[in-house]
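Exercise 3.2. Students should predict the tertiary structure of the chain below and write it as structure tokens, then compare their answer with the key that follows.

Predict this chain's 3D structure.
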Amino acid sequence: MTVERLRQGYPTTIDLTGADVTFWEKTVQPPGIDGGEPIDTTTMRNDAVRTAAPHVLYSLTPLNCNVAYDPTVYDSILGAINDNDEFVVTFPDEGTLTFWGYLKSFIPQELTQDDEPMAAIVIVPTNINASGVETIPVVAAGSGTGA
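Answer key:
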């Protein structure tokens, strides 16, 4: 298998599949993967070193994004907060990361005369679908290496 790295992060987009909200991404920090803190397995029978074990489960870290938005859809944004939904991150190579989560926060930046309305959003992965079933993130390979 040949693997080519992306040469740049443009364009990376996020879709909220069930919400009637559109954001225009400026910066995207996709979810990371966190295996959790080590499990301390040290006992009184250890002689020289502390021992540890990894967890079996992992978590996706929150997705952080700076976006432009339309203030006229503020009501729709309010409706999307804390609503467990499916999110799709599309990378420049057209690969995708699909996961379940919720829009945790929408924090508008100061509105100024010369700049478009901007906000910071945070999406927290839940890995539970609309039926309450554990749903692992799905990664789909892209068709190219991006621009």
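Discussion points: The mean pLDDT is 93. The CA atoms of residues 8 and 56 lie 33 Å apart.
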